[in-house]
Amino acid sequence: xxxxxxxxxxxxxxxxxxxxxxxxxxxxxxxxxxxxxxxxxxxxxxxxxxxxxxxxxxxxxxxxxxxxxxxxxxxxxxxxxxxxxxxxxxxxxxxxxxxxxxxxxxxxxxxxxxxxxxxxxxxxxx
Length: 126
Fold this sequence. Notes:
Layout: E1 11-13, H1 14-21, H2 25-34, E2 41-42, E3 48-51, H3 52-67, H4 72-85, H5 88-115
Antiparallel strand pairs: 1-3, 2-3
Helix pairs in contact: 3-4, 3-5
């Protein structure tokens, strides 16, 4: 028996990207002003539409800023280094995986606190 995968979503709204990345819309819009490569297309209605590649880059920025503690300028320089050395695509994909696992772990820890009758821990600033 052969199974086929369903269609793969190619474009994402800002709301979907916020859910996937655990970021707020104003953070994404600010990052777009700070990182030239974050430049989502707009649909006929004028709404931002993000591609998978852009989501990986957003997760790389998130990883550099929140996990590695780079400044905006430092993250820009690091990403430019990855671009020049040809490492950008694999590094961005790896950052997506690392950040998704990290976010999932945080969500599970919050759920365990709730199930144990504890108060959820405050969320980190975004």
